[in-house]
Specification:
alpha+beta; single chain
Length: 308
Amino acid sequence: MENVKTVSVKDNNVRLDRYIRRIFPNLKQSVIEKFLRRELIKVDGCKAKSSDRVNSRQTITIKHLDYIKNTNSERKYNQELVNLLKDNILYEDEYILAINKPAGVIVQGGMKVKISISDLLDQIKEGETFKIVHRLDRDTSGAIIFARNANVARYLMEEFKARRVKKTYLALTSGVPNKNRGIIDYPLAKKCISGQEKVVIDENSFRNATTRFSIIAKLEHNVAYLELQPITGRTHQLRAHLAHINCPILGDGKYGGRKAFINGIVNKIHLHSCSLSLKLPNDKKIAITALPPEHIKNSLEALHPPFE
């Protein structure tokens, strides 16, 4: 189902998102953004952004109006996710909001994603719409921060880009590195392998990637409990690097295959963003920490006796 509208003279030079809200007054900005990302809203048949200005006689095509009409039926699930995010707030001030993201929750949606945190950023705090400045994989839990306005978002994105934000992760791996601490330094590239997009080691890639690791404990079944610090922030960097040294993250079948699974251990990825250290726009330095989820705690108890 689709709706085709021709922009009238009175709507000339109006922002695209405002024009759409004139047609569908109850449509949330987050849904408009999602439709634009998925290219379900097009201008003259082309991909567009919410900030684009429409011109008279342009054609606006909006697909899947049945989704828009059924949005109300999804409110209950959306509200449950909003409540979950609120319950997991770690820190907030005038600049940022930090959340301990549960495993399985998607930060920003795509074509096959019904709902993500990005669709709910205007519902966490009344009257505010937070901005995404970095991401975690769907199945990675832990500390993630959001900016309270666009200026803070630009500042933080530059801090991440310049590698001034210190990120620390915890992981359980099937396999123990051959030294207690070290650096994994292999360039990465995205490739399609057997119809599946993966990040792989590619010596010809210009996308250098560096990961520091240290062993916290050596556990039963040849499992390692690691602290990881990604110096660079490439997609799936930790997962690809650890799989390459034959120590895939527990539960990560995409990169570790059968080796990533151990009988009796829950089939979830054991990777957690445990801390973020950064400087705020007022030069204040903060460290945000997030406790690991239950499945990691349970696996530690199952694989290791009490620490000495």
